[in-house]
Amino acid sequence: MNQLFLFPPAASLEAKGVDQLYFVMLGLSFAILALVFGLIVVFAWRYRAGSGARRSKLPGFYAHEMEIGWTLATLLVFLGIYGWSVEARQVHWAPPHGALNVRVVAKQWMWKFEHPSGAREIDALHLPLGVPVRLDMTSQDVIHSFYVPAFREKQDVLPDRIVTLWFTPSRLGQYAIRCAEYCGTNHSLMGGEVYVVTPAEYARWADRNADRSLPAAGARSFAALGCAGCHEARADLAPRLADLYGSKVALEGNRSVLADDAYLERSILDPRADIVKGYLPIMPSYRGVATPEEVSALVAYLKTMKSGRTP
Amino acid sequence: MTDATFDAVPERSSSAPSYLEDGHTVASWLFTTDHKRIAILYAAGITFFFFIGGAAATLMRLELVTPYANFLSPDEYNRLFTLHGVIMVWFFLIPSIPAVMGNFLLPLMIGARDVAFPRLNLVSWYVYIFGGIVTLYSLVAGGVDTGWTFYTPFSTMFSNSHVLAAAAGIFIAGFSTIATGVNFITTVHTERTEGMTWFRLPLFVWAMYATSIVMVLATPVLAASLLMIVCERLFHLPIFNPDTGGDPLLFQHLFWFYSHPAVYIMILPAMGVVSEIIACFARRQIFGYRFMVYAMIAIAGIGFFVWGHHMFVAGSSNYANLVFSLLSFIVAVPSAIKVFNWTASLYRGRITFEAPMLYALGFVGLFTVGGLTGLFLAMIPIDVHVTDTYFVIAHFHYIMVGGSVSAFFGGLHYWWPKVTGRLYHEGFARFAAILMFFGFNFTFFPQFIMGYAGMPRRYEVYPPVFQIYHVMSSAGASVLAVAYLMPLFYLGWSLLHGERSPPNPWRATGLEWQTSSPPPKQNFLVPPRVAHGPYRYHAEQDPSDLAEIDSGR
């Protein structure tokens, strides 16, 4: 390394704003330091014991008023900086619509990524340039922290919930991923690389590595058809589907049924045939909406759905 | 009656032996209830722990000279930074100025015979030592690898190290802190001598008072959170474990609710020490005495409401982050005011630059850097990038080492003649002070740069681009180590062979100097009566100022 590594590359839209704040704060800090150090040096020299400087009584204003003045001035400057930092973060308030949604699972000591195409990778993350990315992250063990210095983004990854981080890569290249929350023995080795590529390259990569298995296709249909809107988000409207396959389901009319392949398929195509106890008959039929291939993929996916922390 | 000005110091009275001459047996020390002797016991304890914590830091800095694992395994490295943090925070920094200097000086400064509860004071020391022994046991038995922050669920479900013993040791030591806090609060309320009104208290006493309030209110929360860790680890009570419905973030809230105020337990006493030193060596009253008092009270109070800034990326809500960011800016205002006031106190002074003053001026500079970088961390966008990097490490070392430890050494030199009755070698002392200042900056300034460049903390193995900064930092650390070892020798020599000190070698006006050095067991042969403020330095310059000083402005 011949050159001092002072700043990581700024490879996301967010990074530029952070750097701007940082440089302004550096300027302000050096100004304040120069003022304080300058006064200390000047006073130390001028009022050293034995110097001939005048030391008579202080002028009247040099006390209370001054004290109040610099208290208010400091407060105003601080509030100004605060306001600016809040404004700078405002754009980051909620993930943009249509963001590329990548699922992230952290565990001691690796990062696992799953793309919408089903493509999976470990300790490597391919992302398209200029497309907002939304990471839905969880941990299988302790708390980790997903950190890409080049993006100026960091988010702790918790074992009990899905946390979301979003940003827009703005520069092609390869950037380090690090774990920033201490997570045990090999914390310092937990990392990887982000590869920011052109959208076309990303599409080719995602397709080449797509998961073409039936359950994976079903998972995509599950998302595309909006099933999760009720079955995952609204437990009051629709029953949860995890661990459903092979269980005994209580139905309205004091019946019950074994959740086998036929039941799953019937519930998609003719949902009013069996109404789960406690729910209203509001689910529309997907006959003609989902192709027969999609239905069998959905059934295959439902059979793999297990409760647990893995998304 | 003793008139409390520096020109009225009584000569050493042969009829009153000093507290050091009052018994020479081991038992006379171990069973003493004299606040001055207890302060010495604490001094021995924190010195021991300081060098243990320092040794851990030295090993880490050696390991970090290269980007690869050299002589430490990852687990050994993780145990070392945990050891360094636990020992330095709870067994050195928190007791350092309060339990040593506070114990020695608080009663002297308010004209009291002792603290309000002398026996509780001795018990506090034993509890502290017992806590220290339990913690040391956890280290000897194999160490702890959680970091000093004990984050769950790592500490409760995943760590295979001696978390229980370490938590128990800190838990126990916490009672010592609480007892000291209660003792000091009561002492300030009930033991002030005649005429020692609240606004005639030295700023060091105000600092101890504010610190004690934080100690008493915050430490129980630490105890509770450590107890929860023990309960979950030992009895599998579902508190933080998400598998059983617990919440790992709950721990972080509890921990930082204690640990942020704990930062003020470490820095407020330092502010008190520095105020005493600057007034004495600038021969000026402290500029804006009342504002200095209000600022300390404000820091102690608002300090309880900023803990969330440690958790901007932890998974907190955006709204909570905004509030904590705002409050963090507000708590910085009184600190800034104090820096301005110290600087203004030099104006029209008659400044000399003995070792204590060098430390105090170094404190002002380093504390300012630490405070300004604190503003960076209060800003959410910057914090997201630099939290859990070396930027944070540099920031809090500027506050705790550049600030608190500099002030500790400043106070140590300032009150050394008071405590021991001897003088030290001024040349060595100044040299050590300057060496410490440069060694410190050399060690920690590069860490700001590598932090912003993206070097995470708690990494044994790191990307080679950061090596140059780590080499600088380690080189600085070796300078710093020499500077920290120097006082051990010249102060040790002073203790045995140093020239006898006059009662008030600095011609200071604080009440603690209005008795012999070292003081007699009962502190003052005649209870002093106080008629004016603590910083009556203008007298030698312009007597017409005195009326203003005595009015407590």
Topology, pairings included?
The complex is a heterodimer of chains A (311) and B (553).
Chain A: H1 13-46, H2 64-90, E1 100-107, E2 110-114, E3 120-122, E4 124-128, E5 133-139, E6 144-148, E7 153-157, E8 163-167, E9 173-179, E10 191-197, H3 199-208, H4 214-224, H5 228-231, E11 248-251, E12 255-258, H6 261-269, H7 292-304
Parallel strand pairs in A: 1-5, 4-10
Antiparallel strand pairs in A: 1-2, 2-3, 5-8, 6-7, 6-9, 9-10, 11-12
Helix pairs in contact in A: 4-7, 6-7
Chain B: H1 26-30, H2 35-63, H3 74-109, H4 118-140, H5 154-158, H6 163-190, H7 203-235, H8 248-282, H9 289-302, H10 318-345, H11 355-378, H12 380-386, H13 390-420, H14 426-452, H15 467-497, H16 546-550
Helix pairs in contact in B: 2-3, 2-4, 2-15, 3-4, 3-6, 3-7, 3-8, 3-13, 4-6, 6-7, 7-8, 7-9, 8-11, 8-13, 9-10, 10-11, 11-13, 11-14, 13-14, 14-15
The count of strands of chain B amounts to: 0
Q: Biggest sheet of chain A: strands side by side, in what order?
A: 3-2-1-5-8
Instruction: Please provide the count of β strands of chain A.
Output: 12
Average of the residue pLDDT scores of chain A: 88
Oligomeric state of this protein: heterodimer
Q: What composes the largest sheet of chain A?
A: 5 strands, mixed
Radius of gyration of chain B: 23 Å
Q: Please, what is the average pLDDT of chain B?
A: 92
What structural class do you assign from the helix and strand content of chain A? alpha+beta
Number of helices of chain B: 16
Q: Uncertain segments of chain B of ≥5 residues (pLDDT<50)?
A: 1-9
User: β content of chain B, as a range?
Assistant: under 5%
Largest inter-chain contact set: A-B, 80 and 91 residues
User: Taking Cα atoms only, what radius of gyration of chain A do you get, to the nearest Å?
Assistant: 29 Å
